[in-house]
């Protein structure tokens, strides 16, 4: 498991280095090609000169939305309603995006619950703190670094990527935990106590995560679509990448949810098999003594004209007959593999 984690972390670091290194070669190619800035901008969807400007990041409370200077009433209404939103979404408006990010706690408590709104246009990214759940994980570790990125959309992408960067590894840990439970169910089902509750808790966590990943996929797809050409082509590609990553996380969480259901069914099946084996054992034991009980009842009538009662070898004969019957029954049960 540790080897898998290290390999995945190295892959993430390598991809991150490639994304950061992609900006400089692109600038050199544009200058070397001698093309005009307008021509380069048309190919990218926006002017490349804006890509070189540092992103403007603001972190404000939800009650300070009016101070952003937004004139579009629909955008303001969306931002004001974020307090009652517990979902992840993005809505496209003329020249901007507005939405919310809501991520539940990750498995293993590696990420606390995150809930914040955002306003994104070509010049700035405003992060809106909602009910105090814009945690220090996001604000303290990233806000200062985000301003170093060349565009506000790129800063939002880096923030979202940071929030889910370890989720796949944590899902792999959950898969290992469920595999251990499966092995215990198969090895010693009678010793498992409280595992149903543990599996059901994991299933509920995975259900919430799966929903969050699906919503994050929709958010990234909405921004990547960018009908107004707000984002440079490079940033649209990044949000497409984020959408694909959210899809992979959603597929993994859904698979683990189904795995939880299969474990519960396996545990119930093993318990049923154990009960069936016990019932079969009791049935075999009862069947062995049925003929003996019949003989006992027969000779317990004590009629005066029963010759075996006065026969010298009557008692020994009944014992021998009973043993023969028991041996025959045991042989039959073994042949039928009931014992």
TrEMBL record:
GO MF term list: cobalt ion binding; cobalt ion transmembrane transporter activity; magnesium ion binding; magnesium ion transmembrane transporter activity
UniProt-annotated stretches for the region Disordered: 1-50
Cross-referenced InterPro entries: CorA_cytoplasmic_dom, CorA_TM1_TM2, MgTranspt_CorA/ZnTranspt_ZntB
Catalytic activity: Mg(2+)(in) = Mg(2+)(out)
Membrane topology category: Multi-pass membrane protein
Start-end of Basic and acidic residues biased regions: 1-26
Keyword Cell membrane carried by entry: yes
Subcellular location: Cell membrane
Stretches that traverse the bilayer: 280-301, 313-333
First and last residue of the signal peptide: none
Keywords: Cell membrane, Ion transport, Magnesium, Membrane, Transmembrane, Transmembrane helix, Transport
Any one GO CC term of the record: plasma membrane
Role played: Mediates influx of magnesium ions. Alternates between open and closed states. Activated by low cytoplasmic Mg(2+) levels. Inactive when cytoplasmic Mg(2+) levels are high.
Entry similarity comment: Belongs to the CorA metal ion transporter (MIT) (TC 1.A.35) family.
The name this protein goes by in its record: CorA-like protein
Source organism of this protein record: Collinsella stercoris DSM 13279
């Amino acid at each position: 498991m540790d080897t898998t984690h290290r390999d995945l972390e190295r892959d993430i670091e390598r991809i991150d280095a490639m994304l950061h290194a992609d900006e400089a070669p692109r600038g050199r190619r544009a200058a070397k090609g001698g093309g005009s800035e307008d021509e380069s901008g048309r190919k990218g969807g926006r002017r490349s000169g804006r890509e070189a400007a540092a992103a403007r990041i603001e972190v404000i409370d939800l009650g300070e939305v009016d101070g952003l200077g937004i004139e579009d009433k629909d955008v303001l209404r969306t931002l004001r309603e974020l307090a009652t939103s517990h979902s992840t979404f993005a809505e496209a408006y003329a020249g901007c995006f507005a939405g919310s990010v809501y991520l539940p706690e990750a498995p293993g408590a590696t990420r606390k619950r995150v809930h914040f709104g955002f306003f994104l246009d070509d010049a700035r990214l405003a992060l809106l703190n909602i009910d105090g759940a814009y945690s220090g994980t996001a604000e303290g570790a990233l806000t200062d670094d985000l301003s170093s990125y060349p565009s506000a959309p790129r800063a939002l992408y880096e923030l979202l990527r940071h929030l889910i960067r370890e989720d796949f590894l944590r899902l792999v840990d959950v898969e290992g935990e469920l595999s251990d439970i499966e092995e215990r169910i198969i090895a010693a089902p009678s010793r498992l106590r409280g595992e149903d509750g543990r599996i059901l808790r994991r299933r509920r966590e995975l259900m919430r995560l799966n929903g969050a990943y699906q919503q994050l996929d929709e958010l990234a797809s909405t921004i990547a679509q960018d009908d107004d050409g707000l984002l440079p082509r490079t940033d649209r590609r990044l949000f497409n990448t984020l959408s694909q990553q959210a899809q992979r996380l959603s597929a993994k969480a859904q698979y683990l949810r189904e795995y939880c259901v299969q474990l519960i069914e396996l545990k119930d099946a093993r318990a049923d098999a154990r009960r069936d084996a016990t019932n079969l054992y009791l049935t075999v034991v009862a069947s062995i003594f049925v003929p003996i009980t019949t003989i006992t009842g027969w000779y317990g009538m004590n009629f005066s004209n029963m010759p075996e009662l006065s026969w010298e070898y009557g008692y020994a004969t009944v014992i021998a007959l009973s043993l023969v019957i028991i041996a025959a029954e045991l042989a039959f049960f073994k042949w039928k593999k009931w014992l």
